[in-house]
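Pasting as-is:
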Amino acid sequence: MEQCDTPPSLSPHPPGGELVVSGAQLRAHGLTSARVAQQCRAGGPWQLLLPGVYLLRPGPPTGRERLRAALLYAGRPAPSTGRPEQDGPYGEAMVTGLAALALHGFAAAPAVRALDAVDVLVGRTRRLRSTGWVRLVRGPAPPAPQQVAGLPVAPAGRAVADAVAGRDDPEAARRLLTEAVREGHCEPAALVRELDGARLLGRPHVVDALDALLAEGRSLAESRLYTLVAAHRLPEPLWNVELRLPGGPRLGGVDAYWPDEAVAVELDARAPAPGGEARPPEAARRREALERLGVTVVHLTPRGLREAPERQAVVVRTALMAAADREPAAYLRVLPR
């Protein structure tokens, strides 16, 4: 068999171990199209995986090789420019959907090698088509990718939304949504934003799963708040109370309230309103009304309580200590919520 005069970087064991390369990379090493075609002939040492993407060995590609091939295909430069859209071989492309969730460690996601298709997120203006086992997902304002195993991967919330959008399987969607929240891959509010952006909140099974998860997430956050107060020896507050002006209107409920210091804690565990508004207008109005009356409102998030409880305890303690330097707050009635 004729031996190929491939440069050392494209030998059977190239530096870095990458055996999946693009046609542009081969041309950059001086290989002509005719030489590449010869190497990819039947029984040859190389193979064509996707248009313009090659595996420099025989045999089926590994899961990682499939992902790299999909990214090289989706990130290849447009013919009109001849240049990648961004620095690097993948352009703006990133793995999303079930393949991304497998990289993020989701137990509910199959292994990459078992997937019929690899979803790759690209910009809306890309004219490239899905091909073979690569399914292109287009969307406005792609998120900043995360590097997982050396590959650009969509954040978990976006990957879940793309996985749910691409499949009509209510039970699989419920498993993915549940794992995303329970295992801390993303906050419920961030997940809702992604699902809303993908126009998935009109699917009843998605809404039902989210309702249950949001209630569960709030309960867990409340439990962590109780633990934070006890573990950091903060004064015991009044839990889950409603504040009112004497003889006046209802000011709203808070999760914890220290009446002597006029400090309230609200758990920001609600989902954003459809359309991406982070906090409902009534929540902002309630906070402004309480602060006008001299009440310090501290907002804590489920993620903060989970990942940095010491920092959250410092925030609450600082607010309590600062009460001595403030004007006395208005007298409020405190009722069970």
